[in-house]
Design goal:
8-stranded mixed sheet, globular, binds ligand NA7
Length: 546
């Protein structure tokens, strides 16, 4: 087997699959390496009860193939994990991608082997592997490729809390992002769950239905907006499919690259009267989902605007939760939207059940996990099953779990020790021909991921064609360009309320991680910049024809 490829891809989720398809279309040899035993990335791993996308199914899907988007039939407004995984598997089969995907294979290292000038003075001619990426996998194999593309996902590296005694628990313990595919039976069991982010908020109502007793340990109350999920009406499907590409184009003009059902941005909060504002909050709340945050355009810009809408949400919590003290504990006090809000089905209502208890660990952290359960606030809890819904080492965790080395053996971990440094979230100086899909510094997690993935893959594919046409062998972001880009990404974030709370956007959920706002806010200006860079001859990138 030829172990020298044009393109090495790490990961076989939405990004890896589209990359394999696109590279093949261009006639390049490509292979994707995937640690899981199936394709799907985050949708393969996150099989916890209630797992569901918080972007509507008709939008959270590939747009690159008209036949695919016309033929696939989504069941629900918000697709459940199993439906998305079925879709991804369908894509793998439909485009015959599996032949170039190697499952059950973890990439341990990716090293750039520098081109040595040979005795004849031609760089790279002295060593067959020089000027190429060399990866080693956990099955002991070595592969080389001209390009290495990290399609490793933004939310794929598990954040396991460093609570003392974690390994001593004798019952069943599962992290939501590594959920057993055969499922977990909670019937008649005492269950504890740590974490009230999206994974916790989606799984709590479902677990509560079968568990004997469910105890939720909440460090930070989170905002959640009702999904109003349900079967997707046939007329909705037909209406969207009648002009799918136009809807996708419209989405690409939106800040987060999704939101077909949302109304036009409502202007500035305080340009409306109090009565108009309350009517608007109510109307957007009734629409359900993340579109609620689009009710006015300054929700994440103006503290006073945010205060008002946050209080509106707290009012909704108070209206649903019977016990006022419980409602108070469930009411967030941070800026709405600075942590990703959740989209739920019956979350707050679940706390009215007799078999659900909320334990606030905001003041006093969980002391330790014991053989039988956990101890906090001087009280011991006993469980048959413990669920860790504690999230991810987002955006950089998956990259740093691989020993990535660029020129002069520099590691990516070292280079990014004070936070990720990229140009456009696509490349980083010192690591020629290495690309990241939806990397830090790109809009990624603040957008419809599938749209952002397609934009990145298309940009890279066009770049490869350009390089081929020009006879270029390597592309590398310049130091000046990436410094200016990191500054720009932070400058935009600093004008907003995003940096005001301890979110995973900032790396603040992982102890010791550098606190830097990682995603670029705003999809359209980002795409415009990517296009301008190309129009200006790939400004900010250096090429060599070694
Ligand atoms: P999140 O959103 O990072 O949520 C993790 C939750 O776990 C959050 O409530 C954390 O509290 C909590 N947590 C983490 N460590 C601890 C410890 N040590 N003790 C108590 N509580 C802890 O991850 P999710 O998987 O829910 O969702 C991630 C994204 O996936 C989501 O935003 C969607 O985009 C899809 P904290 O808030 O840090 O105080």
């Amino acid at each position: 087997m030829n172990r020298d490829l044009d393109v090495i891809v790490v990961g076989a989720g939405f990004a890896g699959l589209y990359l394999v398809h696109k590279m093949r279309e261009q006639g390049r040899s490509v292979r994707a390496f995937e640690a899981g035993s199936g394709v799907g990335g985050t949708w393969f791993w996150n099989q916890y009860p209630g797992a569901r996308c918080d972007i509507e199914s008709m939008e959270y899907s590939y747009g690159f193939s008209e036949e695919l988007e016309q033929s696939w039939v989504w069941d629900e407004r918000y697709a459940r994990q199993s439906e998305i995984l079925r879709y991804i598997n369908h894509v793998a089969d439909r485009f015959d991608l599996r032949a170039d995907i190697q499952l059950n294979t973890k990439v341990l290292s990716a090293h750039y082997v520098e081109a040595e000038p040979a005795s004849n003075g031609v760089a790279g001619s002295s060593d067959a592997g020089a000027g190429r990426w060399q990866i080693k996998t956990d099955d002991g194999e070595t592969w080389t490729g001209a390009f290495c593309i990290m399609a490793t996902g933004c939310l794929s590296s598990t954040n396991t809390p460093n609570i003392p005694g974690l390994d001593s628990f004798a019952g069943e313990m599962h992290h939501t992002s590594r959920w057993p595919h055969e499922g977990v039976d909670f019937e008649g069991k005492r269950v504890g769950i740590i974490g009230t982010g999206s994974s916790g908020i989606q799984s709590i109502p479902v677990i509560a239905e079968s568990a004997l007793q469910l105890t939720v340990f909440q460090r930070t109350a989170n905002y959640s907006i009702p999904a109003y999920n349900g079967a997707l009406a046939e007329e909705t499907r037909v209406a969207i499919k009648a002009d799918y590409q136009a809807i996708r184009a419209l989405n690409r003009e939106r800040g987060a690259a999704f939101g077909i059902n949302w109304g036009p941005p409502g202007g500035l909060t305080f340009d409306s009267t109090k009565a108009e504002r309350l009517e608007a909050y109510e109307r957007y709340w009734e629409m359900g989902g993340l579109g609620f945050l689009g009710v006015f355009e300054d929700i994440l810009m103006d503290q006073r605007a945010n205060d008002e809408i946050s209080e509106f949400v707290r009012g909704k919590i108070r209206a649903v939760v019977d016990d006022p003290e419980l409602a108070r504990l469930l009411s967030p006090d941070h800026v709405l939207g600075c942590k990703r809000p959740c989209v739920d089905t019956n979350y707050y209502k679940t706390y009215n059940r007799d078999n659900v208890e909320l334990v606030d660990v905001s003041e006093k952290a969980i002391d330790r996990i014991t053989e039988r359960g956990l101890v906090t606030g001087g009280r011991e809890f006993e469980f048959d099953c413990l669920v860790l819904a504690t999230g991810f080492d987002a955006m950089t965790g998956a990259l740093h779990s691989i020993d990535i080395r660029g020129r002069q053996e520099q590691t990516l971990v070292d280079k990014w020790s004070a936070g990720p440094i990229t140009y456009l979230g696509l490349g980083t100086n010192g690591f020629p021909n290495l690309f990241t899909i939806t990397g830090p510094g790109s809009p990624s997690v603040l957008t419809n991921m599938v749209t952002s993935i397609e934009q990145h893959v298309d940009w890279i594919a066009n770049c490869f064609d350009f390089m081929q046409g020009q006879g270029h062998a390597t592309i590398e972001a310049t130091r000046e360009a990436e410094e200016a880009w990191v500054f720009h990404v932070n400058e935009i974030a600093d004008e907003t309320l995003y940096p005001t709370c301890n979110s995973w956007y900032l790396g603040a959920n992982v102890p010791g991680k550098a606190r830097v706002f990682m995603p670029h806010i705003g999809f359209p200006p980002y795409v415009e910049k990517c296009n301008e860079v190309v129009a200006a001859g790939y400004e900010g990138f250096d090429f060599s024809s070694a």
